[in-house]
Amino acid sequence: MSFKVDTVPPALTLSSPTDKLVTNQSACTVKGTTNDATSSPVTVTVKLNSGAAEAVTVGSDGRFSKALTLAEGTNTIIVVAKDGAGKTTTVTRTVTL
């Protein structure tokens, strides 16, 4: 019998939006990639402001995207990747409309 010990959280990279983005467009798409070599699959959730964190489909290549509608003012987007061992990586972006 063998056991795999996973002490490494999943990789999480956001390609959009950039942090501290200022925009006049309320439509915003969160795009990125995630991967975990030892504890796949990785699940991703996206949370906008005080709303509920919503699960996002992650492709077999690790890519994901989620369309959001920004509120007037400063918006906080929190993206969390969680691997099969329960390890998490969080990326936060602030976008101003």
Give the arrangement of secondary structure elements.
Blueprint: E1 11-16, E2 21-22, E3 27-35, E4 43-48, E5 54-56, E6 63-69, E7 74-82, E8 88-96
Parallel strand pairs: 2-8
Antiparallel strand pairs: 1-3, 3-6, 4-5, 4-7, 7-8
Characterization of the model:
With 97 residues, this protein is mainly β. Helices cover 0% and strands 53% of the residues. The strands form two sheets. Strands 2-8-7-4-5 form a five-stranded mixed beta sheet, with no helix packed on it. Strands 1-3-6 form a three-stranded antiparallel beta sheet, with no helix packed on it. The chain is elongated and about 55 Å long. The protein starts with 10 loop residues before the first strand and ends with a strand. The model has no long low-confidence stretch (mean pLDDT 92).
If you compute it from the alpha carbons, what radius of gyration comes out, rounded to the nearest whole angstrom? 15 Å
Instruction: Give the helix proportion (percent range).
Output: under 10%
| Biggest pleated-sheet summary | 5 strands, mixed
Run of helices and strands: EEEEEEEE
> How many DSSP E strands?
8
Sheet with the most strands: spatial strand order: 2-8-7-4-5
Quaternary assembly: single chain
Q: State the end-to-end CA separation.
A: 55 Å
